[in-house]
Write a structure and sequence with these properties.
Elements (H helix, E strand, L loop, with lengths): L1 H10 L2 H6 L1 E5 L5 E6 L5 E8 L13 H8 L12 H24 L2 H20 L5 H8 L3 E7 L4 E8 L3 H13 L6 H17 L1 H13 L13 H5 L3 H11 L5 E7 L3 H12 L22 E7 L4 E7 L8 H12 L5 H9 L3 E9 L6 E8 L5 H18 L3 H19 L2 H15 L4 H11 L2 H11 L5 E8 L2
Parallel strand pairs: 2-6, 7-11
Antiparallel strand pairs: 1-2, 3-5, 3-6, 4-5, 8-10, 8-11, 9-10
Length: 480
């Protein structure tokens, strides 16, 4: 593995890499990062919108994720058989939906039944005018793959890969999608998201994770579920989501990475032609509350008829902090893979667990270092927890071994550098580093800083962050 890392590093150099990068920003503020790679006639596109669950208000959680679902539903031109007639029906649907919400809160069951009947009739009419999944179908017919999207706390991203002779098609479709969102089929898609929410509530891992995040972050929005609370989804409307869209989906709040068989001198005129029509607007600014210092251990215990689980969160800094590299190395040493300390101790030697993982989550705002473990049959989360703390104490007292450091750094570099060899993953990395850290070059600075991590540095972050007063513990206890 060390040899592989050396070989890859020998072929990746920032100065060489940068020669193939072109950055271009439109007058409206939309930024593009273009990377030329002519290995195959394929191009990957990654649209990064700097808006996610942290931008939501209490009472409207789940909006960012719901919007991501609806972005594939077409525009005024795509996905409709008759936009003028469809628009009238959608307006009526929105009006009736708001009346339904009011009737629910008032407890007027007779009125509610009539409104629901009216709503269902309008929705059936709306479906007559829909061309279901037309956007995705166009992409697939043109050779598109990897058509997808995801929502996180800090961002919402949309991606697709296409043959390089379909670049202008992509520009037309995506600029139209960003300029003319319709969110058709809204209330049917809302039911899909609500079902996802129910699945999360019935999933032991998801339930524990949500409860643990809730005690880890008492003030910051990272303590709320990305999918939203069911109570908020019940009162969701298309108009609320469109309002969120117009606040945050503005050119200045986006970065688009394009990687593959492209020539900037040919590509940039296409980008100007289609994306310049997006109006220049200042993105909404939201004051994100700072999570206060934690002064003591916090715990949440869930009793349910499920496999016992253990999750431990420690507060750590955000992605721009100097300690990030040491925390990533620590995660490798402590709980990633069969050679990690916790795997060897918990799974192989004492056989009290069947699975263990550790990772450092360092997003835009301060995140968490998480340890996750599944106790083996006949053993409890408390037994596993005790051994984990014993291993952490050993790290504090004894530090790490030089061979552990070399192996951990090599694994991180190999995993990161292999991503650079894939168009889709490189586009995602470039967009993320540009949008979140302010410069795509920080990807290479991260790799350089990994090389500089010393044994004493790793020991210092253990002493600094993996301490009792800084941790929150979540446990699922088996209850028959």
């Amino acid at each position: 593995m060390i040899l592989i890392a050396v070989l890859i590093l020998a072929t990746v150099d920032l100065a060489v890499f940068e020669k193939n990068v072109t950055t271009y920003t439109l007058p409206n503020g939309l930024k593009f990062i273009i990377y030329e790679r002519h290995d195959a006639p394929v191009v990957s596109f990654h649209i990064h919108v700097k808006a996610g669950a942290v931008n939501e208000e209490l009472g409207t959680t789940g909006i960012a994720h719901l919007l991501e679902h609806l972005a594939f539903r077409g525009t005024k031109k795509i996905g409709t058989k008759n936009w003028k007639k469809e628009r009238k029906i959608l307006t009526q649907l929105d009006d009736v939906r708001e009346e339904i919400i009011m009737a629910k809160h008032e407890g007027d069951t007779a009125k509610l039944r009539k409104l629901i009947s009216r709503f269902n009739l309008l929705d059936s009419i709306a479906q007559i005018y829909e061309e279901t999944e037309e956007l995705s179908r166009i992409y697939e017919e043109m050779g598109g793959r990897g058509i997808n999207a995801y929502t996180s706390y800090d961002m919402t991203c949309y991606m697709v890969s296409l043959p390089s002779n379909k670049i202008e098609l992509w520009a037309y479709l995506e600029s139209d999608r960003l300029a003319n969102p319709i969110l058709r089929g809204f209330y049917r898609e809302l039911e899909v998201v609500k079902e996802e929410r129910r699945m999360d509530e019935n999933s032991p891992v998801d339930r524990l994770n949500e409860e643990l995040d809730g005690i880890t972050f008492k003030v910051h929005p990272y303590g709320r579920p990305i999918i939203g609370y069911m109570e908020d989804l019940e009162d969701m409307t298309r108009r609320k989501v469109l309002e969120f869209y117009h606040k945050y989906y503005v050119p200045e709040n986006m970065v688009i990475a394009i990687v593959g068989d492209v020539y900037p001198e040919e590509l940039i005129p296409i980008l100007k032609k289609y994306f310049s029509k997006l109006p220049k607007r200042k993105p909404e600014t939201k004051n994100i509350p700072k999570e206060p210092k934690q002064w003591g251990e916090r715990r949440v215990i869930i009793e349910m008829p499920a496999q016992p689980l253990l999750m431990i969160n420690y507060h750590i800094p955000n992605c721009k902090h100097k300690d990030v590299v040491a925390l990533d190395v620590l995660a490798e040493i402590l709980g990633k893979g069969r050679f990690s300390r916790l795997y060897r101790r918990l799974v192989e030697e004492e056989k009290v667990a069947t699975r263990v993982l550790a990772w450092a989550w360092t997003p835009k705002y301060p995140g968490v270092f998480t340890i996750y473990a599944v106790p083996a049959r006949g053993h409890t989360a408390y037994e596993v927890e005790k051994i984990i703390y014993d291993e952490i104490d050993k790290l504090i007292k004894e530090g790490i071994k030089s061979y552990e450091l070399v192996r951990a750094k090599s694994r991180i570099k190999v995993n990161e550098l292999l991503r650079l060899d894939d168009n889709e993953e490189l586009a995602e990395e470039l967009a993320w580093y540009e949008a979140v850290t302010g410069d795509w070059r920080n990807l290479f600075k991260y790799l350089e800083n990994i090389d500089k991590v010393a044994e004493t540095f790793v020991k210092s972050v253990v002493e600094k962050y993996l301490v009792r007063n800084n941790r929150s513990v979540g446990i699922i206890e088996l209850k028959l």
